[in-house]
Amino acid sequence: MTWVELHYKATAGLLADPCLYSTIRAGRVDPETGETIEALYDDAGQYCESIAQRLDAFHTDEYPANDMMRYLHWPDDPQMEAAIRDKVRSAHVTVEANGATLYAKLELEMTADLTISEFEAFTKQVECQYRDGWGAEFELITIPTSDAPIYLRLWHDDIAFFTGAVKGRFLEQRRQERAALQSGIRSRTAPAAKSAAKTKKWTER
Fold first, then answer.
1. Is 25 helix (H, G, I), strand (E, B) or coil?
2. CA angle centred on 56, ends 165 and 73, rounded to 5°
3. Helix (H/G/I), strand (E/B), else coil: 175
4. CA 199 to chain centre
5. Using a CB cutoff of 8 Å and minimum separation of 24, what contacts does 28-31 make?
6. What is the pLDDT, as a whole number, of residue 41?
7. What is the dihedral sign for C-alpha 135, 141, 144, 145?
8. Greatest C-alpha distance within the chain
C-alpha cells in the first residue's frame, strides 16, 4: 500500500464570486465652490449608475486604466507578487448598490483562488491604491448627476473589505448595526419628548 501525504491551504473563496467589496464615503458638492455640502452616508445608492460610468471612464497620465493590477506592487516580496499576479489577471473598480447603500466592487478576473496570506497581501495593496494611488486621484474629481455633483472616496478610516462569498452575512450584520443604532437614538430622544409633553400639560393648567 502506498500512502500519499496531502497538504491543503485555506483559500479566500473568491472563485465562486470573484469580487472584492468595500465600504465607501460619498457626498454632494457645491457646483460653484467645490466644497462638500452634504454627506450621503447610506444614501449614495441612488447614484450608482452615474458613479459606475465615471469610474469606468476615469484615467490620468499616471493611471491610464481602471485596472488595479497595473498599479499593485509587492517590492519586498517578489514571490508573493508572482503568485498573486499568476492568479489575478485584472481587477476593475466599479460600484454596487444594496438598497440605498453603495459599496465599491473590485471585479476580478482569476485563474485560481488566493490563499489566505495572498488574499491579505492583495487586500492591503488594494487599500493602499484606494488611499494613496488610483483612488486618491479619483477622489479629486466631481461626478455629475441629475441633481447635484458628488464625490466618491474609496478609502476612509473605517474602510471594511468583504468578499462575495460572505456578502450576505456582512450586509445582514450592517443592517443589524444600523437598526441597533437607530433604536438607541430613539430611546435617547423619547424621554426628552415625554418630558416636553409633560411640561406643556402642566403649563396649560
1. strand
2. 65
3. helix
4. 47
5. 28/147, 28/148, 28/149, 28/150, 29/142, 29/148, 29/149, 29/150, 29/151, 31/142, 31/148, 31/149
6. 86
7. positive
8. 97
Backbone CA torsion sign across 15, 17, 22, 24: positive
- pLDDT band, residue 4 (cuts 50/70/90): very low
Is the Cβ–Cβ distance between 160 and 23 less than 8 Å?
yes
What's the one-letter identity of residue 165?
Answer: A
Q: Which residues lie across from 178 on neighbouring strands? A: none
Q: CA-CA distance, 182 to 189, in Å (whole number)?
A: 11
CA distance 161 to 181: 21
Compute the distance between CA of residue 103 and CA of residue 3 in angstroms, rounded to an integer. Answer: 48
Mean pLDDT in residue range 143-150: 92
pTM: 0.83
Residue 103 near residue 23, CB atoms below 8 Å: yes
Instruction: Please check whether residue 92 is in contact with residue 103, taking contact to mean a CB–CB distance below 8 angstroms.
Output: no
Cα–Cα dist 193/168, whole Å:
37
Q: Which residues contact 198 (CB under 8 A, 6 or more apart)?
A: none
